[in-house]
Amino acid sequence: MWYIWDLSILLSALSLVIMLLLTARRLLQERRDRATAEQRRQVLTALIAFTENRDREALKAVVLAVPAGVAIDAGFEFIALLRGEERDDVLVAFNECGLPARVARQLQKGNVAARIHAAEMLAALGSDDASASLLLALAQDRSREVRIAAAIALCDLGSLPLLGTALDFIGVAGQRSRRLIELFRRFPRSRFNELAVHASRADAPPFIRAAAIDALAHAGGFGFADFFAGLAGDASPEVAAAALRALGLTGHAQAPAILTRAMENDDWDVRAASAESAGRLGLPELAAPLSALMDDDVWIVRYAAANALRSFGQPGERLLRQIASAEVSRRQRTASLILAEGPAA
Amino acid sequence: MIADWSHEVVLAATILSWFIIGAGLAQTTIYLLQLVFAGYALSKRPPVARSALLWQRYGDVAPPIALLVPAYNEALNVVESVHSMLALEYPNFEVVVVNDGSKDDTLQRLIDAFKLVKFHRPYEEALAHQPIRGLYSSPMTERLFVVDKENGGKADAQNAGINVCRAPLFCVIDGDSILEPDALMRAAQPFIDDPERTIAVGGTIRIANGSRIEAGRVREIHLPRRLLPLFQVVEYLRAFLMARLAWSSINTLMLVSGAFGMFRRAEAVAVGGFTKGSMGEDLDIVIKLHRYMRDKKRKYRIQFIPEPVCWTEAPETLSVLARQRSRWQRGTLECFFRYRSMLFNPRYGRVGFLGFGHILVVDVLGPVTEVLGYILIPAFWLLGILSAEYLLAFTALIFTYGVCVSVCSLILEEAELQRFPRARDLAVLTAAAVIENFGYRQLNNFWRVKGWWQFLRGNQGWGEMTRTGLGGAGKK
């Protein structure tokens, strides 16, 4: 049993020595932090001065005089506040100081958090080599979060490879991330067809397809209405619900028929989505199916249907009052609740 | 005859000692493994330092969250707490304060401060709870709802909040805790990165005693000036940074703290919400979630992430701390025995083997064997029944490994998170990590054994939690 004792002494002593070293490191770091804060202040002061006098050489002198990490950090925060010519001028100065190259190294060699941040900074700095570094990260980085960040940065730079290729690089596990919604929302209009192709791929994860539909609905407009109408009957409830919500945004000649059909779908999310879209479109022919939907087994669907009727304006309110004053039923109770919603009288 | 008898005594003492030392060895091995897993998890996913970056990155895709705040006799702090919650940095959230039949003027203070008016909000009665007397909204902010209900306990109030809220995610916090401004954004990250599988996320609870608090925010982090809360700082670091992070890394996290946990509403409703009257309602709901998801054969993740921080006040007196620890022990035992069919049940995979196995070794057997060890091992040695080897082995398991585990938790904190602002704090905490093993640990185990005894006797009382208040005012 001696080994239990010996090992415990060894491990405890080791842990105390490591902690001692970390405390010493922290003492040094405290001094370094004070210096860094001062250097950061210098960079920010120089940047503010630059926006007034455009003296690029003076800015470069300050940037080169401080550690690159400090300049990058302060610079990235500052350029987020700038737009137009002013921003372009600062970026030129940063490029001339070689900051993007430094960020590119961080994209390769930092930890996960640093690599994600580097991808974002490269998109903001927009140097000539940024796309190459980001493409490399998209293709080879071992963290899917970094690959997604690289894809978003590439999209901002207009250098994202074909969507299918990018998603392959991101990998199946990464295709569950809500960050892809961000990627799709940043997609250039000229490449919307790629989103549409992906949204209609039955073998793609439903989450991704739904995100693509959502992005198209918000930015693509009526041009994709037929496409959404086609997907409203998709076998995947997630995709069908997204297509129905999209139809609520764009409208479609066949919308009443499609939405009425969807209100009978087995999946409650699809029924709720169709009610929501019906409310958005406010078409009188949808009033009857919506009032029928207020008998649904699922509360969320009943609430969505009643809310949709309420958003019809006065005709909807009239119908709700009529239902609320009828004999007691699930529909009647839902109507009463929705009519009472709001500050108490 | 006498020789035979003494031989049997020695044999019995040796077996008992082996059992005690074996249990200690198992516990220590678990801790050391946890350290390895936690270290690996932290190195694999280093924290994002600046919250502004998070907002930029996740602001547009962050899902709506309802912050559920059960409040019982919180008149003293409730207004300040709600103000600080409303000022959280998150794009889409609502604060649902549930006044659980407070006997003081908690509700009136809220009505006065936020000019609350009665409000009708349709909601589904998906979970059972005590009747709601009224819902209130504020013309000053769309984000605030107050539910006034009859008293039913914390779990009951949380269930009422779950019913009333509309967001797909809800976050439970204690009314007297303080969330860091970016805590919601950080806790929501797993729901953004893996929205289909993530069903619950826990964050870190830290001790605010001694820190400077203004307007419901922790402005300056300081260590507690008193010894008892200082030991609890080390204890919390060990519990969160080591244990939860380690279990989370292998998807076996059994506890998301009731003081700060985020859940997907659909699954929480599917398991029946929080169990009313439970002493450990936070442990209970996580076990129910594991059971439900495994029964349904659905892929899921229950995660702990260390960066989102919720500050809480630690008990400063022995009597209050004793009540708290005994209650926690009863809560753990209650859940362990309620869901005992999951223990070592292959149907529940690593949750049944590792999660429940850990509860068995560390929480169910741990305190009893350790207290037995304090009494029996030195006694056996003094009587000459056992050799010094046994005594040394037991001493090593309790004291020296204890020091090692506590200091290693501090190492994890300093190597990856660095939340303590000064080098002096690290030195103080290192000293506390050593000293707590000589006295505080033993006291703690005594309280836990007391909790065992109360559990066996069916004592269900919560006991009075006297606090001085994070703002410095006294309250009960």
How would you characterize the overall build of this protein?
The complex is a heterodimer of chains A (345) and B (476). Chain A is mostly helical. Helix content of chain A is 75%, strand content 1%. Chain A has 20 helices and 1 strand. In chain A, helix 5 runs parallel beside helix 7 and helix 16 (268-281) runs parallel beside helix 18. Chain B is of the alpha/beta class and 476 residues long. Chain B folds into 2 domains: 2-42 and 348-456; 47-344, Alpha-Beta Complex (Spore Coat Polysaccharide Biosynthesis Protein SpsA, Chain A). In chain B, 52% of the residues lie in helices and 16% in strands. Chain B has helices at 2-44, 51-58, 78-86, 106-114, 154-164, 183-187, 189-193, 227-249, 265-270, 281-295, 318-338, 349-382, 388-417, 423-435, 440-456; strands at 65-71, 93-100, 117-120, 132-138, 141-149, 169-173, 178-179, 198-207, 212-214, 217-220, 260-264, 301-312. Chain B has a 10-stranded mixed beta sheet with strand order 3-4-5-2-1-6-11-8-12-7, sandwiched between helices. Chain B has a two-stranded antiparallel sheet with strand order 9-10. In chain B, helix 3 links the parallel strand 1 (65-71) and strand 2 (93-100). Chain B is globular, with a radius of gyration of 23 Å. Mean pLDDT of chain B is 91; it is low at 472-476. Chains A and B meet through helix 1, helix 6, helix 10, helix 18 and helix 20 of A and helix 1, helix 2, strand 3, helix 7 and helix 13 of B.
